[in-house]
Design goal:
- This protein is mainly alpha-helical.
- The protein has helices at residues 2-18, 22-26, 43-55, 61-72, 88-98, 106-133, 140-143, 149-159, 164-176, 218-229, 237-251, 267-270, 289-303, 306-321, 323-327, 338-351, 356-359, 361-368, 393-405, and strands spanning 180-182, 185-187, 208-210, 253-255, 258-260, 264-266.
- The protein is 52% helix and 4% strand.
- It has a two-stranded antiparallel ribbon with strand order 1-2.
- Helix 4 runs antiparallel to helix 5 (88-98), helix 13 runs antiparallel to helix 14 and helix 13 packs parallel to helix 16 (338-351).
- Mean pLDDT is 93; it is low at 378-383.
């Protein structure tokens, strides 16, 4: 493992060097465009790479400051258009990570706190008003980990874990687990009339129940569990965890290498009119077994459920041992690639009853590759290349650095993943 860690750090360092300058990166032909305040694709997310390395004494703070300055040079996006991955909350994640001593970025963070509080209160008011009607179904962006209240809760759990705003989000998530009557039948409270894209689509008549960590119920489950583990609890929280786990138990499938969960359930599948998938897809953080297993492992740790913990850990080991699932993993990203698998496995291994999860991390590092050039941002504007946190080089480099360090992140950069 030592050689794997040394190689991982070498790739992380080389990538950080290539992403040293926002001015250079801005001239690249980036497939997602240039979005400075984006945590997923822009400067706010890339700043996290340099913040983490600076806090570890492996890189200059000036790089972090340059990327943070780039993120705010056109002002701060607030209000309904902002969410964990864009605008004020995204900047708050980065600044909170950079606050390595008392008072650092305090004024800026206080200002961002106020913006986040206002927009979050409005979101909560709208969500409760919807639920008061007892018939309307939520948009994915109401509750999910990317655009929704679970993502904001992830930030607040690190920023102000015992504040009232986080408790209000937990109260909302508890209520989200209450069933809804729709079209004469009972649906889980997180059932959405939308397609996975976040839009209404004729391909999903009656909507769906999304299971993923990024856009589905695994994200709220993880936040409820992580909050409980941090001794932040509200009435009904343990019961809500149980409701979600029972739903996921209902749809858990058993394959040749262990348990897995479908990414979503349609109305036709709920009625028994359409068959479920017969095999798991890639075991990614965003929709696959890695995210599902970690969220349920956290739920088990929060509630003392040893049987569920063993099941979740066996599912993750099985996914990381399955050639078919690994073959379906075709990129290196945090979101749906090998970096996300390796980082999630590392977090799960630290809490696991079995050493088998950690034993598979070197294989995942091998799949990422040994050549730092493989993560090189494109040299010319015509070549493209994703340099961002969620699907690009910065996220891969952060995961590799954290695995190399072998210790919890000092900056908490992976807060947005809801795995720790």
């Amino acid at each position: 493992m030592r050689n794997h860690r040394e190689r991982a750090e070498a790739i992380s360092a080389a990538t950080a060097d290539r992403l040293a300058s926002p001015a250079v990166a801005q001239r690249l032909g980036l497939p997602q465009g240039w979005h400075p305040q984006s945590l997923a694709y822009g400067a706010a997310g890339i700043a996290l790479l340099h913040i983490e390395r600076a806090r570890a004494g492996l890189g200059p703070w000036q790089r972090a400051h340059d990327w943070l300055a780039c993120a705010v040079e056109d002002g701060v996006i607030t209000g309904p258009d902002s969410h964990l991955h864009y605008g004020a909350p995204a900047l708050a994640v980065a600044l909170q990570a950079a606050a390595d001593r008392s008072g650092r970025y305090a004024r800026a963070l206080d200002k961002l706190d106020r913006h986040i509080a206002v927009s979050t209160c409005h979101r909560l008011e709208s969500a409760h008003a919807r639920m008061d009607k007892a018939v309307e179904l939520p948009a994915l962006a109401e509750f999910d980990a990317v655009r929704g209240l679970s993502g904001i809760g992830a930030h607040l759990l690190r920023r102000e874990p015992h504040g009232e705003l986080l408790r209000d989000i937990l109260v909302y998530l508890v209520r989200l687990t209450e069933p809804v009557q729709s079209d004469g039948g009972s649906l889980p409270g997180w059932w959405s009339a939308q397609a996975p894209s976040g839009r209404v689509s004729p391909d999903f008549p009656g909507g769906h129940a999304n299971h993923g960590m990024a856009h589905g119920i695994a994200g709220p489950l993880a936040l409820l569990a992580l909050s409980a583990l941090a001794d932040v609890r509200v009435d009904g929280q343990a019961e809500a965890i149980g409701v979600i786990c029972s739903w996921l138990d209902r749809w858990r499938q058993e394959g040749t290498t262990g348990s897995w969960w479908p990414a979503l359930i349609t109305r036709a599948q709920l009625r028994g009119e359409q068959l479920l998938d017969t095999a798991p897809s890639r075991p990614s953080w965003c929709y696959g077994t890695a995210g599902h297993a970690r969220s349920q492992q956290l739920a088990a740790l929060a509630t003392g459920g040893l049987a569920r913990q063993r099941m979740a850990e066996a599912a993750l080991v099985g996914a990381l041992s399955d050639p078919a699932q690994l073959a379906a993993t075709t990129d290196k990203s945090l979101c749906h690639g090998y970096a996300g698998l390796a980082h999630t496995a590392g977090r799960a291994a630290a809490d696991a009853l079995t050493p088998d999860i950690g034993a598979r991390v070197p294989m995942l590092l091998d799949a990422i590759g040994a050549d730092p050039g493989a993560l090189k941002p494109s040299a010319t504007p015509t070549e493209g290349g994703d340099i961002g946190l969620l699907e690009g080089a910065a996220g891969v480099a952060l995961a590799l650095h954290t695995i190399s360090a072998g210790t919890p992140s000092p900056s908490g950069w992976d807060t947005f993943l809801l795995i720790s």
